[in-house]
Every structure is written in structure tokens, then in C-alpha cells.
Specification:
Blueprint: H1 4-8, H2 39-52, H3 62-65, H4 71-93, H5 99-108, H6 116-127, H7 129-154, H8 156-165, H9 167-189, H10 194-203, H11 208-217, H12 223-232, H13 240-279
Helix pairs in contact: 2-13, 4-6, 5-6, 5-7, 6-7, 6-12, 7-8, 7-10, 7-11, 7-12, 8-9, 9-10, 9-11, 9-13
Length: 280
Amino acid sequence: MADDSEIAGVGKPAKYFEDKPDEKGPKLGKDRYAEGWTTKDEEAEKAFIAAGAFKWSSLRRRRTWFRAEWWYWYILAAVIIDFLQPMAVWMREKPVGWMIPIAALIVLSFPPLMGQEVIILIVGIVWGLWIGFGIVTAGTYLGELANYYLFKFWLRGRAEELERTNVNYQALAKITRDGGFPLAFVIRLSACPGHFATAVFATVGMDVFTFSAATLLSMPKQLVVVYLGVLMADDGETSKEEEIANYASLSVIVVVSIACVWYIYRAMRIAKLMIWREKR
């Protein structure tokens, strides 16, 4: 875990932290205290940091990646894919069959519905990598755009309530307001749930053009799931050169996504601490 000076933002960009401590403001930096800051405040802060810290060492444990309770979902997904595959082949034979998975992706983009990954796998199985990617991009973008307008005009009150009561939502909203398009793009590239991110983007004042650019430019991360579908339907016709190129591209996407997850986690952790200090 990073030390207190790192968490407090010493040496970090000025847009997140004050360069100099305000005499009447919250504690800033290691061994720099506001008037009235007590040992009790310090201990409460350390407890807050420890409670919210992700244990990176857990990634080395097998249980983190393989859990018995997950096998039910793996089996269920396999059964659903096997059941829907003949229907998907039928869709491909129809002139406008590609519109059906697009419509399914739009519907499943609304919380609390889920299952987009199953549809994307089927698209990869039936339409292949690049046509499948185009279908997935269209369905995902239109679904997220519909969610954007839903939260912007009809569920804004609910989103504002979440920002008051949910510290993760509040932290994501804070870094999004401060970071603008670059931060929104990084959030989209990360593993942050699309429903969650879209709700935040819609309620922090982000315009539809910025939202659309961040969403569309981050679509390559969907290639990973599409390609898994392609592998499930692989009949041995893919050349060695194509396989190498595909694996290399997917490896880059995975590495970039992991880096984005780390960056967003770190930024949110700092933002949560600053929010906690303001409330304290």
C-alpha cells in the first residue's frame, strides 16, 4: 500500500490537489495538518485507507481466478450459447439478420439486465471477427447512447442520489469532472462496468459528442470477446499468420485495459480519500 504522502497527493497534478496547504482546509500531505486535526482523525483516516485498499497480493492466489461458485455461470453460458447457435445461423442467412443481435445488445445494455457477453460470443461464432466486431460496435454504442439519455433526462435524480450516498460513484464522478475526455476514454478502456460509467458521464455534464467519442474509440476492447467466439467456431481455416496477428492485437488490448484499470483504481482511491477528508 502506498504511503500517506502518496495517497494525499503530494507531487500529484494540481487539478486534484492544492499545491500548498490551506490553513483552514483539510489535511494535505504527510505531517501537514489542518487546524484542529487530531490523532483520532489520523487514526480514522488510516482505517479508511486500509478498508478501501485492494489487496494486490490476492491476484497471486488461485481462488481469485477460479472459484467453485462461478462454474454454474460458465455452464449456464455454454448451454445458452449451444441453444442459441442454430438460431444465430438462421439469422445470418436472413438479409437483415444482423439487426437482431444489435437489438439484443441495445436491450441488454439497460441495468439491471446483463448477458451482453453471451450475445457477443454468438456474434463472433456466426459472423466472424471483423463483421462481428462491426455488429457488436453498433449494438453496444446504441445501447450506451440510449442509457446516456435515460440517465440524463429521466433518471437524473437517481444518479444524483447515488453520488450523495455511494462513495465509488462519487469518486468516479469527481475524477470524470476533473479529467474530461482523456479520463472518460481511460474509464471506457478499463473494466469499469458500462452501465455505471454511462450513468456518471450523463450526470456530470459531459456532452454527447465527448461521450460518443470516448465510447467509440474504446470499442476495440470488445474484440477480445468477439475473438473468443471466433475461436469457438474455428474450423482450422485460419492461417498461422492471421492467428499470430490476432493474438498480438488482443494481447495489446488486454495489457492496455489492465493499465487503465490500475490508473482508474489509483485515481478513485485518491479521490475517495479527499472526499472523506471534506466530510470529516
